[in-house]
Amino acid sequence: MALALLAACNSQPAETKEQAGRPQATDPKTNPATACYRYANQGDTVTLNLIHVNDDVTTGTLMYRLKEKDANTGTLQGSVKGDLFVGNYTFTSEGTLSTRQVAFKKTGNAFIEGYGESIEENGAMKFKNIDSLNFGSSIILEKVACN
Question: In angstroms, rounded to a whole number, what is the distance separating the alpha carbons of residues 135 and 112?
Fold first, then answer.
């Protein structure tokens, strides 16, 4: 009988119905921050979803649906340095898997895609010089609520 009392004192309390329905606190170190951005105008749509994993890695998804062009959707992996995200975009378009480097500059609550001269390196397109990119695009991806 003493053994049963000792076991009862050392056991964890059972979860109540009230506790079961309550959201659990999450540790910010294991719950990465997600930010979503979108451009939509006259039938063109671009969406960018970024997930900050740690100081060196940011992942996400990118989708282009531009009028009279083939749509493509894929994944991103790169990093954010200051106000610039640079990463590799791996996507499928017309059944072909491709990779190209992308760059987005954060301005306020928006991102603007950078363009510049590219070269092919190991089967992927890469910017020749990140420092000379042009961010004068009319496509501005505004921050939106993530779904």
Answer: 6
